Amino acid sequence: MAAKIGIDINLRNFSASYSARRTNKPANVQRFTVVKCSVNLTSNGTAATLVERPWKPFDARLVLEDGSVWNAKSFGASGTQVGEVVFNTSLTGYQEIITDPSYAGQFVLMTCPQIGNTGINFDDEESKQCYLRGVIIRSLTISTSNWRAAGKLSDYLAENNTMGIYDVDTRAITRRLRQDGSLKGVLSTESSKKDEELVQMARTFNIIGVDSITDVSCTAPYEWVDKTASEWEFNNKGSDDKSFRVVAYDFGIKHNILRRLASCGCKITVVPSTWPASETLKMKPDGVLFSNGPGDPSAVPYAVETVKEMLGKVPVFGICMGHQLLGQALGGKTFKMKFGHHGGNHPVRNLRNGRVEISAQNHNYAVDPVSLPEGIEVTHVNLNDGSCAGLAFPALSVMSLQYHPEASPGPHDSDLVFREFIHLMEKGKTNA
Questions:
Q1: Whole-angstrom Cα distance, residue 339 to residue 365?
Q2: Residue 188 near residue 63, CB atoms below 8 Å
Q3: Per the database record, which ranges form the Carbamoyl-phosphate synthase small subunit N-terminal domain (predicted)?
Q4: 38 with 5: CB under 8 angstroms?
Q5: Residue 156: Cβ-neighbour burial (10 angstroms; 0-12, 13-18, 19+)
Q6: Is the peptide bond before 409 cis (omega within 30 degrees of 0)?
Q7: 8, 106, 138, 415 - which has most CB atoms within 10 Å?
Q8: Distance between CA atoms of 296 and 211, rounded to whole angstroms?
């Protein structure tokens, strides 16, 4: 039969006692009961295993394809997921990040150490669900403090069947990704699965050459009717007249891209990624937007063909995946970057005016500028690595950016690009 020993630890106000000895005055001693607990002892006097713990135990693992195993604590959904691990350097905007469809098939590691402090609200969602495979963070904030918060991050991930882990060394993993490049990995809360089994799962997972946009695209056309709320509007010239009709191809489009276009006076019809170019042209749009989206642009040749059929017939604007598809349609090539660009703090130089913009970015692929035919202008360059960040082909009324000008999350430096698209459509109307 196990014996039980009680422990009662008391602390005195030693500074008060010391002061009393110096002044010969009675000490104002405060007595606090700090810990009072019971420890079960076995028959031989050793402590028995405690059933209840005052902290959450390590109950999850991140296993990378290089064979490394990182113990962690879980939040959100449970189970086992496989994906590509990338790191994001944004300090804010984790809700926009986890609802960005461009992260489909990936685990997002946040380099900002404390995540969850502003909770979750329903205004900052960039899509109707979480498309990423999981979230990796250093410290999960236990308290939520924000006047807009309607819930907690952990509850939100659980409701969206998305895994999360914390209390893991995110700095060490980030250094590894920067050195070795993006790595495939497995998140698991299932103790029955051995490390070797999870490593094999990571190594056999493939994201290159896989069509990732079909699963995140809408299945039927729809009209975008939401407006940018006035309290979040920062560059509106009062254009309530929907004078431009835009068809937006949904490769994983973010809501705020549509809000920004609507704020500039566009009536928008969103169509699926497989929507035929001939049907789009029947709508007689003033312009076509090819949106952001996840995965390998070379794995969706049908989308490249759609872009080709649109060139020269209507002004075109491409963002991220749309930029990469335009690069291929114009005769260029794309390649997979070492660890991609993911964050809200990437400096980009606009080569047309010399202006440096701080941009929000999220992509693993880039257009090779050397492969582009003559006449195509590289308009923007990423100052971190010199990669192509924007294209223009004035002869065909084409413009594109490799990053996110809609500022969700991120700075507003690049918002003027939506006005540039408006000017392109105005010019098209004049020449029609």
A1: 9
A2: yes
A3: 58-188
A4: yes
A5: buried
A6: yes
A7: 106
A8: 7
CA distance 161 to 167: 20
Say whether pLDDT at 10 is over 70: no
d(CA 104, CA 82): 11
Least Cα distance to 391 among 335, 329, 287, 318 occurs for: 318
Q: Name the residue type at position 180.
A: D
What's the CA gap between 355 and 393, in Å, rounded?
20
Query: At a CB cut-off of 8 Å and minimum separation 6, what does 78 contact?
Result: 163, 189, 190
Spell out the residues 6+ positions from residue 79 whose beta carbon is closer than 8 angstroms to its own.
Answer: 163, 188, 189, 190
Sign of CA pseudo-dihedral 175, 180, 181, 183: negative
Give the C-alpha separation, 291 to 119, whole Å: 28
Question: How far, in Å, CA of 294 to CA of 278, rounded?
Answer: 25
Tens digit of pLDDT for each residue in 142-178?
889 899 999 999 999 999 999 999 999 999 999 999 9
Q: Which amino acid is at 232?
A: W
Residues 6+ apart with CB under 8 A from 317: 287, 288, 289, 290, 399, 400, 421, 424
Strands 333-350 and 356-368: antiparallel
Q: What is the DSSP letter of 285?
A: -
Q: Phi then psi for 173, rounded to 5 degrees?
A: -65, -40
Tell which residue, 320, 214, 222, has the closest CA to residue 271.
222
pLDDT band at 320 (very low <50, low <70, confident <90, very high): very high
DSSP, res 264: T
User: CA–CA separation, 154 vs 36, rounded Å?
Assistant: 31
The catalytic residue positions are 320, 404, 406
pLDDT digits (tens, 9 = 90+) for 61-70: 999 999 999 9
User: Are residues 103 and 90 in contact, defined by beta-carbon separation less than 8 angstroms?
Assistant: no
Q: Residues for the chain: how many in total? A: 432
Which domains can be identified in the chain, with CATH numbers? 60-204 (3.50.30.20), 222-431 (3.40.50.880)
Q: Which residues 6+ apart lie within 8 Å of 417 measured at CB?
A: 399, 401, 405
Residue 142 structure tokens: 């236990």
